[in-house]
Design a protein that fits this description.
Layout (H helix, E strand, L loop, with lengths): L4 H12 L4 H8 L3 H15 L10 H4 L5 H14 E6 L2 E9 L3 H14 L5 E6 L2 E6 L4 H4 L17 H9 L1 H12 E10 L2 E11 L3 H13 L5 E5 L2 E7 L2 H10 L5
Helix pairs in contact: 1-2, 1-3, 2-3, 5-6, 5-8, 5-9, 8-9, 9-10
Length: 254
């Protein structure tokens, strides 16, 4: 579709003044893709190299929202991954669709850690993928790499460990919200049924389970390992005092 050259000229003027593509498109009633192409051609003609703006704390020196990052780190180690390709960069956190509050919390944590990248939700059968688009997520999660997390070494950088040490409960909360649960167990003694709450964290990675148990120990939570068959995938928290601590700081998913 051909557009009046005067409209294109007006659009370029507005774009050079800093007006975003969407606003220019709405103002001139021109498709946003066309506005984007005009911006690209104008930059190319002027020899201007476009650099995607970023508020990555590591790259810009901006102050970290450490509690939000500790929580997001737990979510990432449990049910997250990063896609980093030449034309595709995003962090994905996969949430059970039954836990609407968890979906909201994952999205909020992404926004708090970096506000500039766009965040979207992709609904699939039984779960919601919360996605944030920027290649700077690889800066903040250097554990990113090829293959499954349980098939490669997972270790925190010194700066990440400092954040976890400063905000251990947020980190544990992210782990439990991703790969954990709070359930009610029961047993029968002397003909009477007894019920008691218990937390589980289940992950195939020995390294990630150790990050979990090390942090639990630092906050005074006692834990044991329960095998799934012959595999020690389950971290169990069942002692009354430890469950009370978890309830005070973590609570059930919602």
């Amino acid at each position: 579709m051909e557009h009046n050259p005067a409209i294109r000229e007006q659009a370029v003027v507005l774009l050079r003044r800093g007006m975003p593509n969407r606003a220019v498109a709405e103002h001139l009633n021109v498709p946003r893709g066309t506005i984007g192409w005009w911006r690209h051609e104008d930059r190319k003609r002027r020899g201007e190299t476009y650099v995607q703006p970023s508020d990555c704390p590591l790259c810009t020196g901006r102050e970290f929202d450490q509690p939000a990052y500790a929580y997001l780190l737990g979510l990432y180690l449990g049910d997250g991954h990063i896609i980093s390709k030449p034309k595709q960069h995003h962090l994905s956190i996969f949430c059970d669709a039954a836990w609407a509050g968890l979906v909201d919390a994952a999205e909020e944590a992404m926004h708090l850690v970096m506000r500039l990248p766009s965040v979207r939700r992709r609904h699939r059968n039984g779960y919601v993928e919360v996605k944030s688009y920027t290649h700077h997520w690889t800066c903040l999660f250097p554990q990113h790499g090829p293959g499954k997390k349980h098939e490669r070494r997972i270790a925190l950088e010194d700066w990440q460990q400092e954040i976890v040490d400063a905000h251990p409960w947020e980190f544990i909360r992210g782990l439990i919200h991703s790969d954990g649960c709070r359930i009610t167990n029961w047993t029968v003694r002397n003909g009477k049924r007894y019920e008691y709450p218990r937390y589980f964290f289940t992950n195939k990675s020995d390294d990630i389970r150790k990050l979990c148990t090390d942090t639990l120990a630092k906050v005074g939570v006692q834990w044991t390992i329960l095998a799934r068959g012959s595999d020690p995938f389950n971290v169990s928290i069942a002692r009354k005092a430890s469950v009370a601590l978890m309830d005070a700081h973590i609570g059930p998913k919602y």
